[in-house]
Fold each of these.
Amino acid sequence: MAMADLAKHGDQRSVALSEIAARQELSEAYLGRLFGQLRHAGLVESVRGRGGGYQLALPAQSIFVSQILAAVDEPTRMTRCIAGSNIGCVGEERCLTHGLWAALSRHIQTFLSDVSLQDVIDGGPALQASVAVRPLRPSPEGLAAE
């Protein structure tokens, strides 16, 4: 939300965290921590002095949601097991639904890697196409009604 706000309101100027915090109803202290991580990842730049704040380090079409989540260490995995370790879903075993949730995690990561910050603020093609990927299957209740 904060990065989308910055992309939308930061055209040709830096934006103060207090402005983003007010618009998004987020804590300024929390945003300060996030923007430190985003700056370290090279996604935003800080501007000092009068009129200072933050601006995107790259064009919005070159920043992808997956990069933002990775920069702030926000996981997108749907399993509780840890890849590359002996820790499984249930003790040291894989749970019965592991394949399902691991596949969903991969789909989410692929989707977020295809959506740019520009897509988010424009509601662009990457978001529109994802809605039309596959028609929904009828629910069991819907089948029984037919």
Amino acid sequence: MQTSLTEKQTTAVNPALAGKSPLKRLLALDVVRGITIAFMIMVNNNGGPGSWHFMNHANWNGLTPTDLVFPTFVFVVGVSVVFATDARLAKGALRSELAKHTVIRTIILIILGIIVNSFPFFHLAHMRFYGVLQRIGVCYLVVGLFYLWDQRASTKWMALAGCLIGYWFLVRWVPIPGIGMPGRDVPFMDIEKNLVSWIDQHLFPYHLYLYSPDHNVRDPEGLLSDLPAIGTALMGMLAGLWLRSKRSVGTKTAGLAIACISSLIVGYLWSLEFPLNKNMWTSSFVLVAGGYSLALLTFAHFTVEQMNWRKGWTWPWLVFGSNAIAAYMFSELMPGILSFIHMTGTNGKPTDLTTWVAMHTVAKIPDPHWAAFAFSVSFAAFCFIPVWILYRKKIFLKI
């Protein structure tokens, strides 16, 4: 079996790919994925209360760099779907086969997400069913099947507008049962009394990210907010379609930059009425976060694809990006594993291995902000080791 196809052969296998650029791996996308997963590991292990503001999520409305990590990963999923699907179709894969694979991969991602949430104790009474990998799985399922069904950019634009405007209408103008109309009977986007939280409270009571024995609060990856998150993946898919076109490399970079600026302008203007909010994944947040994702992709595309700066600085990001899910799983499960290894602390009381190592290393840094940042970087470096081993052995874990 041939390992590659010429552009002419590709078109013969699948006429739907006619007019697109020859199939090749986009190194810039791997760099963006690697940078994103590395920063995700850092902010998820930010060193605690001493960490800088930008290493923490906004409490409610507002935006920090940390809030951009998750949507960037979802954005990359959308871009990747275009390249991965086109590559497999070009090799002769049937759409039914790809649809089956998409469903199976989604199920695996959801199961892995529940494992990450529950490890190591798996308390069934309050097991959390929503989560990061679950949301990625849902977005991947929707945009993956959508792209298999229709590969036109126009339908993706319409779907994106439908997701963002539809979500705004639901959150702003649909009365909350038993509570009332947002903006009239209850403050618009109240931290607890909003339609997103109301649905989650009734669908999975006491299985949410924030709950107490007598109070069911909310979940940042709730059901209704999957709708605008799908919009984030659609933005990535539109970027992927642009990059898969036969335009010149310079034109592609310029197009990404224009899309970045446009998305930021529209998003920030919309935020004046529909505030930026990562917890609710508001429509304005989708556009602003998508704008910054486009900025990162523009930078990577310019440096890697246009200027051909491929050696040296790209290496750590390629290692992380080659096994992004494996790196994330390792970073999420390892703290639970290390918590079972007990050491004797400086006060003679038992402590876990992670705390013990931190006390004897980064905790000695006088400035608490730098100490927390040093812990964050060190933990990311620790997670780099197994991914680097897989990379050297050319093992790439694909779901």
Amino acid sequence: MTGHKLTVRRAFYKTVPIMAGYIVLGMGFGILLRNAGYGVLWALSMSLFIYAGSMQYVGVGLLTGGASVITTAITTIMVNCRHLFYGISMIEKYKNAGKYKPYMIFALTDETYSLLCDEDDIGEDNNLYRFLVSIFDHCYWVTGTLIGSLLGEVIPFSTRGIEFSMTALFIASFTEQWISSKDHLPAVVGIVSTVLCLVFLGPDRFLIPAMFLITFVMTLLRKKEERKQ
């Protein structure tokens, strides 16, 4: 088997757990969007060009509620601001990605990040591997969305509580990382910082300050670690 085929195979096997989650969650979004009165083309376009699971769920409410452009922009920034922070940690890995870089930046979801942030070095095919992981995950999400939209057209579904599915996926990703990683300090910093901001700022204002606090603390810890070395 050639090197590229091995890389494709490895990337596919790595993303199988994400496939299981994305198909189901994508179906949930497709059903939710269909029940809101938006068909397959809307579902396909949002999943292809927005590709932000939690924001797509929120976007259904924005569409049906007639939200303004300003409201939509602010909501999008608040929901997806976490990408700015953990994306910083991928700069070194992505800097030599060449033609793959634009798409890989676009496709860096929470789950794709969790697969790539602790990957082993596989040599000269690193960039191809990261690209394939990204595009496989994207395909799973689009596939789930289309299935959900088509099912929602012919089978009546109750969408009550379906938004919690994204929260469930985040919890599952966190648990998997906790089990597979020996260094739990970043997770502890994230939990403590988030809880503190939630307690002192409330549920409507805690998200962005929590992200800044996590970044600040992790930067200090990183500098301290570098001085030790």
Amino acid sequence: MTQAQGFLPLRGGYRKLRVYRVTEIVYDLTYYFAHRYLVKGDRTIDQMVQAARSGKQNIAEGSKASMTSRETEIKLTNVAKASLEELLVDYEDYLRVHGLAQWGEDHPRYSRMRKFAQSNDLQRKYDELKEKLSDEELSNLCITLINQATYMLRRLIARQEEQFLQEGGIREQMTKARLEYRRIGPTSPTGLTSQTKQ
């Protein structure tokens, strides 16, 4: 590691993560669903929208925090997963109390819904599609997307934990960078150390 590189890794590219894009769609659909199908004044509206927002925002904040704290990154990613799991229960509750079906593997539309949720068409079509879906269809689409997102977040958390075990936290990286600096000396803009230029 050279002085030019520094000890702070370049991170924060959360917008490229598929899980972030999925949670962004979940937020947009939930905002529409809550204001379209829930009664005005129902506290569930704010709860669902906030849970969806928390799922999205904590991925972003965790990614940004990873530059200075692996521990914070893992914590915030876990918060994102927990928020989405809370939102999942809200959708399941809605279907149950309204006497609507939650689509399982035996439902005739389950496979097609799951395939659409995993496709690249989702990003392009969800916004125009949402107004054509019933509350049952929209709930099941969001449930499918939330399950997809929480699966990806579990894998992301496992990877973050593995990286923490391998690389340590920022304090360990700072100590390592300092010891390396003392060992080889400062690096010039040409990439040569003061020792190699002599």
